[in-house]
Amino acid sequence: MLLTLLSTLTTSMKIIDNEIYQAYKSGQAKQCKECGEIKLLKDFPLFSTKGAGRKNTCKHCSNALATIRRRLRRQNPPPSSAGDCPSCGRHTTAWVLEHCHQTNRFRGYICDSCNVAFGKFGDDPYTMQRSLNWLSSHG
Ligand SMILES: [Zn+2]
Ligand SMILES: [Zn+2]
């Protein structure tokens, strides 16, 4: 009896996985960049800008991230005035809270350009260093 139940469960799980896989192949699902799970597009929040599409972080992870960022912002208030970004050194008026997505540790406040760049490079110093080396060696 239990065995039958187990095998039924396993079979139904496989069907769900296959559905997601088919949806993924036809562009109706994508991988969340936080949890790595492949989910249906409707499980990804829309950008607030109309026509900008959906975020690459699923609703579940987006909500969790928002909660963490709120807490970190409360514990570490942003600079009260414009200043130089500690990352790139350029003057900024728009501070963005930067934290480690693995450990949830607060890193600091950086400018919007650095925040976007870090995001594009997946917060990976190795990839950024590689890219930097290439840029430096090509004048
Ligand atoms: Zn996720
Ligand atoms: Zn910067």
What does this structure look like?
The protein has 139 residues and is an alpha+beta fold. The chain contains four helices and six strands; from the N terminus they run H-E-E-H-E-E-E-E-H-H. It has two domains: 28-75, Wheat Germ Agglutinin (Isolectin 2), domain 1 (2-Layer Sandwich), CATH 3.30.60; 80-139, His-Me finger endonucleases (His-Me finger endonuclease fold). Helices cover 45% and strands 15% of the residues. The chain has a two-stranded antiparallel sheet. The protein is elongated and about 65 Å long.
What do we call the CATH topology of the largest domain? His-Me finger endonuclease fold
**Major sheet characteristics:** 2 strands, antiparallel
Number of strands: 6
Q: Given this structure, which CATH class of the largest domain is correct?
A: Alpha Beta
Query: What oligomeric state do the depicted chains represent?
Result: single chain
Strand proportion, as a percent range, falls in: 15-25%
Strand order of the main beta sheet, please? 1-2
Percentage of residues in helical conformation:
40-55%
Kindly report the average pLDDT value. Answer: 90
Q: Ranges with pLDDT <50 over ≥5 residues?
A: none
Based on CA inertia axes, which overall geometry fits?
A: elongated
